[in-house]
Every structure is written in C-alpha cells, then in structure tokens.
Amino acid sequence: MPFNNKSLIRGTYFPPGDKSISHRILILAGQAIGKSEIFNLLQGEDVINTLKAMKLLGVQIKKKKDKYIVFGVPPGSLFEPREAIDFGNSGTGIRLISGLISSNNIKVTLVGDASLSKRPMKRVTDHLTKIGAKIELKKNLFPPIKLKGIGNAVPLSYNISIPSAQIKSAIMLSALNTNGKVKIKEFKTTRDHTENMLYSMGYNIKVRENSLYRFIEMRNNKDLKSIKYTVPGDPSSAAFFISAACLKPGSKLIVKNILLNRTRIGFINTLRDMGGNINITNRKKIHNELVADIKIEQKNNLCSTTLKSKDVPLQIDEIPILSIVASFADGVSIFRGLKELTVKESNRLKLIHQNLKMIGVKSVIKKYDLYIYGNRNLKNGAAIIRHNNDHRILMSFFIANMICKKNNIIKDKSCVKTSYPMFFKHISQFTN
Ligand code: S3P
C-alpha cells in the first residue's frame, strides 16, 4: 500500500493499549494481594521489559490467550534477582522500577540500551537516596543504576521541580513500602495514571490540585487490592493517525476506545485550535480513567498555533507529530519551552529541526522554543531521515510523507517495536 501525499486516512481504528498505563498496571498488580487480570496490554518492547523485570523481582505473570494473569507479592517482599535487569529503551520502565526497588531491602543493577544509557537518572535517584537507598550511576548521571534498597524507608515530603510523571511515579512506588505519610507536591500537568490506579485498587491516597500544582498524600495502611483491568487505547500512538487525518481534508476516521485523560490529550486541543474537526463521543470512566471514541471528519486546511510552555507536559510525546502538522498549516507555529524534549529517547528538539530542514521546511530554535514556518505547499521530501532509533521521530517523519512530493527514506524501521509494533500494519489499513 503506497503512503504518500495522495493518501487519505479513512476507517475505524482501535489504537494499541496505552504504554504508560501498561507499565503501571504490571507494576501495581505485581504488588497487589491475589490474582489480577490485564486485558489489551501493549505488546511493545518497553512494556515487555517491565513485565520481565517484575518477573525477575519475584512476581508470577502468565499469558493466557488475550489476557495476562498477575499474582502479586506484597510491598517489601521483592526478590533479589541474580542478574541485571535490562529495560532496553524504556525511561519509564527503569525510572518507575528504581522507585519500586528503592524501598525493598535488595540489591539490583538496572541497565538499558545505548539511548537509555545516555538519559538523566539523577532527577529520580536524588529523591530515592533521601529515603536511605544507596545508588550509584555511571558518571554520577546515567544508567547502569546500581541500587541497594532500604527496608525501612523514611517517609518524606517531596517538592518536584521538573514536570515529570516518571519522577513522581518513582517516588509514589517507593512509598508503597514506606511506613508513615508520604507527601508529594508536583506540577498538575503531568500524567496521573499512578494515582488513578492506586485509587481503583483501594489504596490510601489523597490528591488535591490548585491551578498549578498537585498535592499527593499516601499512607501504606491499606492493602492494594487485585484488579481486572482493560488497558484503554494509547492517545500517543493514535496521535499519528489523528494528526494525519486532520492534515488531509477529505479524511474520515473513527477512533475507538481511546484514553482521554486530560493530562494526555493536549495534542487534541492543539489540533482543534489549528482547525482540526475532532468530536468526542461515548465518554465513560473506567477505573478512574476517561475512555471514549472520537471522530475526525476533516473538511478544511489547518492554520498555525502557539503552544505555551505550561501546556507542553500535556502533549510532551506528541510534539514530533505536531511539528509535522505545523509544517503544513498556514503561518508560523511556535512551540514554547521544549527543554524536556532534549532528554527523551533522543534529543527530539534537535532531530525535529534537522529533519524538517532536510524535507524542505524552515524552522528555527530560539533557546528551547521552536518556530515552524508552515504553508500548504508540498515539501520536497526525498530526505534520508535521521531518527537515531527514536520511535516517535521515525513515525512522525513517516507521516511527513503525506506532505512531501517525494517519499522520504527511512533506514531501519525496527525501533517502532518499542511502543507501536503494529504501526506499519495500521498505516496500510487506514490509508487509501
Ligand atoms: C511517561 C511520562 C513522560 C513521557 C513518557 C511516559 C510516563 O515522561 O514522556 O513517554 O509513563 O510516566 P516524563 O515523566 O519524563 O515527562
């Protein structure tokens, strides 16, 4: 099936299971009393690495047809694995599980691939050493993480200065085996799936928010109950198809069973602001998460937008695909405050800028703000895309074929397996 500037996106689409929720449900079911069942778990490599990690830490997990069955071990009783735990490409996996291990009296080494081995870990480990865990990092910054957890962790109050759900969730997971009250203050724009899941599992957690911050209080005086959980569709994966549909007047796409947690759908608001015709139906709350269907029926071309820094965490993983959308929208789009993009699976800010230039789009970086000079002319394309094995850069610049005269060249597409192994299969199903 060719995919190029003549393609329209049409059909009914079921996005794969949400990655953030898949990691968390494996970890929390792994600490719950009794048997949990998980449906629609994302089959991406990142999540499978978290699953393997939980098994190495003593949790029994079995696959039975379309479900995973998890027999939890109570907080504080993780096993000490004989070997290092390999998280592959996954920042979420390594950071969350560092938190979990930090309050268990075991010694573990956590490693990752070449990209993960260059990502900052001190943002998490600095918090975990305060409870008494002993941690060594390569060059005092990067994985491997050599971690000696502590069985009687000190309950503390944390003030998190970087808007990051991974940092917050690592601390929350360390609190599962911490006696006393743990308090966290963080930016309310970060995703709140760990909180929602803990609520659903009967844990003692209180959350309150004001206009800027979220305040979390946890006490480990109630058991974590087992759960039957169906993972909703991943908005970050669906974003490629939703954006592609908005890009092309004449596209008609129905997206079923997609997670619409407000901390995850900033990109939908941005696309609407640019003229995307997106309607939401069948809203329901399942385990404290909003799940719905959406319909895109694009009639008009898009116009430019300005994204404020404070809204970036609400669409942090969708900036690469939004930059493609902005390239084909009339006017200059400005995405402000993209510093966190420089420490993702690659330096995404740099790669977006370089690849846009290579396909024929002008963009400028001013400090951490990105200016994209968009118009409705087809771009030259025919560029060799530099993706440094970053799945989201690769998928975004594959979608860029829709706005190029000549298709771009993408060598080694294997990294899509980390978050979206079915990406190319889905592309062929929804284009005509
Ligand atoms: C994630 C949080 C985000 C996001 C990542 C998944 C999570 O990272 O970019 O893809 O599941 O908690 P940060 O928390 O570092 O912003």
Tell me what the structure shows.
With 432 residues, the chain is of the alpha/beta class. The chain folds into two domains: 10-16 and 232-429, Enolpyruvate transferase domain (UDP-n-acetylglucosamine1-carboxyvinyl-transferase, Chain), CATH 3.65.10; 19-230, Enolpyruvate transferase domain (UDP-n-acetylglucosamine1-carboxyvinyl-transferase, Chain, Alpha-beta prism). The chain is built from twelve helices and 22 strands. A four-stranded mixed β-sheet has the order 1-14-16-15. Strands 3-4-2-13 form a four-stranded mixed β-sheet, covered by helices on one side. The N and C termini lie close together (8 Å). The relative contact order is 0.13.
Give me some keywords for this one:
binds shikimate-3-phosphate; 432 residues; UDP-n-acetylglucosamine1-carboxyvinyl-transferase, Chain; 26% strand; 12 helices; 28% helix; alpha/beta; 4-stranded mixed β-sheet
